[in-house]
Amino acid sequence: MLVSYKWLKELVPELTATPADLEYKMSTTGIEVEGVTSPQEGLSKLVVGEILSSEAIPETHLHITQVNVGADEALQIVCGAPNVRVGMKVIVALVGARIADNYKIKKGKIRGVESLGMLCALDELGVDEKINPMKHEEGIFEMPADATVGDSIFSYLDMDDEIIELSITPNRADALSMRGVAYEVGAIYGLPVHFPTKELTEIQKRTSEKISVSVSTDKVPTYKIRVIEGVKIAPSPLWLQTRLMNAGVRPINNVVDVTNFILMYYGQPLHSFDFDRFGSDEILVRTAQDGEKLTTLDHIERDLTADDLVITSNGVPVALAGVMGGADSEITNETTTVALEAALFNGTSIRKTSQKFALRSEASSRFEKGVNEGLVTEALDFAAAMIAELAGGAVLQGVVESSDYQPKKVVTSITLSRVNAALGTNLNLDTVEKIFVQLGFGVTIEAGEKFVVEIPSRRWDISIEADLVEEVARIYGYDNLPSTLPLGDEAGELTPLQKLRRKVRTSAEANGLSEVIGYSLVTKEKATEMIAEKNFPTTSLLMPMTEERQTLRVNMIPGLLDIINYNQNRKISNVAIYEVGNIFLPSTAQDGRPIEVPNLALAISGNVVDASYSHKATPVDFFHVKGIVENILSGYEDLTFTATSEMPSMHPGRTAVIAANGHHIGFVGQIHPATAKKYDISETYVAALDLQAMLELKPAQTIFKEIPKVQAVTRDIAMLLDAKLTNADVISVITDSRVKTLTKVELFDVYQGINLPAHKKSMAYTLTFQTAEQSMTDDEITNAMAKITTHLIEKLNAEIR
C-alpha cells in the first residue's frame, strides 16, 4: 500500500509528524513501513515552459522549438515528439538538469542545430510504465494551461510528495485504504481525522426504471448499482492523475479513475460498465456454469467453472466478479451512460478465481482480505457524485440493490484488571478509555472497571477480548511495556531428539560436511525418486504456487543433488553437504496429514583430496562415505551394511542398506550414473539416516570396559571364495564361529584376476585375539583359528590358502 503524505495530511489536518517519524512510529505500533521515497528524488532543474514557435527540420521527424522558460530569452530546443505545438505548456529540462537514471542534460547539436535543453515525457522523469498515462511514442507531457512559466514542475505533478510504502498483513486489511491509514495515524498521535464529503444531486428519473438486479448465490451478501447518464469520457484533471500515480495506479479516463480513486480512498472496489453495451436491463449475479467463457479487459478469453462468480446481462457473463471486468462492457470514449457497481463478494471465492487465472488485482486483493461492509453505499454515492462532477453526467435517483445488507454490530468487553494482567502494566481507567477513544471505538464503563467496547465496521479484525488487549498494547507503545524474566523453578533443557540432532550435526561437520537447507516441497517425481516401491503414496498441495513445489518430499536426497548441480554449474566441483530435516510419510489419519519423520541426508561429490605436486587426487568413493556414516553411528550395536540393488536411482553394485540391531535405519551408496546424468552432476555418493529410528535404538548409556592388561595376538588368513560373496558374508561367518577371544576382524586384501579361477576371488583378513586376564597360548590360538577355518570351509566352501 502506497500512502501519499500530502493526501494523508489532508485527512489528518493536525498531523505534524514527518514521514520519517511516521515510518518509525507505525512500524512500532503494528504496521510495518517498507520505506519512504519521493518522486522528485534525483531530479533537478525541471521547469514549466511554453512553446512559442515550432519549425520542422526537413526530411526528419524533428522540430526546432523556441521555448519560454521565464528567462530573458527563449531557449532553442530540438524535439522529436509528435504532439509538439505552439502555445503548449511543457516540462523543460534545462542545461545541467538531472532526469531519470541520473542522466545529465547538456548543450548539444542535433542534425547540426543547437539544442539548449530537453522537452520531457513522464517516463524520462522516472515515472514507471505501469502507472504512466502516456506511452512514450505519444510524445511529451502537456502541463496544465494555467501553469506558471518558469515554475518548478514538481508541485504541479505532486512529485514533491513523499510516498510511504506500507507492508499490510492480512489481519490489518483495514489499512488498505487512505481512510484506514488516516484512522491509524490519528489513533497513534491522538489526532482527529477529517474526511471530505460530496453532495450527491439526483435527477427525477429513477435507477429502477433503467435496470434491475438479482443475486442467486449466497457468496454475494449485497450487490448495488447506480446509473449516470450523459457522461463525457475525457482525461481526468491533473490532480486526480497525480494522486493515482503516487498511489501506484495508472490513470485511464475520468470515469475509471474515479473508481480507482474510491478504491484507494475507501478501500471499496467499484466497477464501471458501459450501460449501452450490456444488451439487457437485467443484471444477475451468479456462479458461472462449467464451460462458459468470458473475455476480460486484458482481452484474454477465460474458461469459467462453477467456482467463479460472474456478473451477467441477458444470461451472458459481462464481468468476473471482484476480479476483472469484461472487454465487451468496458468504458470507451463513446460511452455516455455508466452503470456503477459496488458489492460485497465472498473472499475465498475471489481468491480462488484470481489465483486460478493469475489475475491478482488491487480489487481482488481487498475482497480477499476484507472490506468495510458498512461503507459500501457511501463509497458508491461518493463515486457517483465525483463522476457527475468530472464527467458532466446526471445521476439517476436511487440505488438498485439485491439486499439492504448491514454488517452486524460487534460489541465486546474487557476489564481493566484483565488488560493489566495481560500486559504486566498498571494502567488506569482514564488511560485505557482514552486509547479506545483514540481508536474511534465506542466505549462505556460498567461495574467500576469493565469496558464495553463497540467496534466500528472498519475494524473487522477485532472481535474478542485478546484483540482489545493487543490494541491497548500497540497504542500505549510496545516499548513502554515492562520487561520481566519468566518465572520457573527449573531451567529448560533439550529434548532427546534435539540432543541427537546436535550430535549428528557436530559429527557431520567434523567429517568435513557443510550444512544446507533444502525445499520440503518438490515435484512428485523427485519426491519418490529414491523409493523402490512403485506408486508410493505422497502428500500434495491442492493449490501449489508452482509445479516444482507441489509435493512433500519423502526423501531428502533429490534436494541435495539439486544443490550439487547448482554448485558444479558454477565451477565448484568438490561438494560435501548434509541436511537435517523432516520427510513426510503417508498416514491413515482422518485429516490426511502426513507423518513427519526427522532424517539426516548427506551427499559428497568430487575429490576428497585434490591433486598437488606431491600426490594424486583422491576421489570420493563408497568406503569414504561409509566411513562417515560409521563415525556418525559410532556406539550403535550390531551395525550392518547389506548390499542392495532394489533402489532404482542408486548404483546396484555400490549401495547398501544400513541396519542396527536388526532394524533398518537408512542406506548409503553411489547415485546411479543415469540419475547423475539427469541431474547433470559428476559421480556422487549419498547416505540417508532415520533420526527417529536412531533415537529409539540409541544405547541408554555407554558401559566402560576395562582395558586388557595383556597384549593382543594377530593372525592372518587368506582364502579363495566365490566372487559373488561379500565382505559382510565372510565377517558374518567368522563372528558366528563363537570364538570368545576374537576381538577384531579386518579385511586387508582383495584380489581377482590373473592366476585365479574364473568367478573366484582371494580375500585376506587379519584376526585379532585377546583375553582380559592372561596371555593366550599357542594351543589356544591354534584351536581358535581351526574353529574359524572349519566354519569358513563349511559355510562358504572357502579354500584356505
The CATH topology of the largest domain is given as BirA Bifunctional Protein, domain 2
Spans of at least 5 consecutive residues whose pLDDT stays below 50 are none
Widest β-sheet, arrangement of strands: 28-31-32-38-37-36-35
For the record, the CATH architecture of the largest domain stands as 2-Layer Sandwich
Cα-atom Rg, whole angstroms? 39 Å
Q: Count the E strands.
A: 42
- The CATH homologous superfamily of the largest domain is termed Bira Bifunctional Protein, Domain 2
Mean pLDDT: 92
Largest sheet: 7 strands, mixed
Give the total of domains: 6
The amount of helix comes to 10-25%
Structural class computed from helices and strand pairing: alpha+beta
- The separation of the N and C termini measures 84 Å
Percent of sequence in beta strands: 25-35%
Domain B5: 407-483
Cofactor: Mg(2+)
Keywords: Aminoacyl-tRNA synthetase, ATP-binding, Cytoplasm, Ligase, Magnesium, Metal-binding, Nucleotide-binding, Protein biosynthesis, RNA-binding, tRNA-binding
Family: Belongs to the phenylalanyl-tRNA synthetase beta subunit family. Type 1 subfamily.
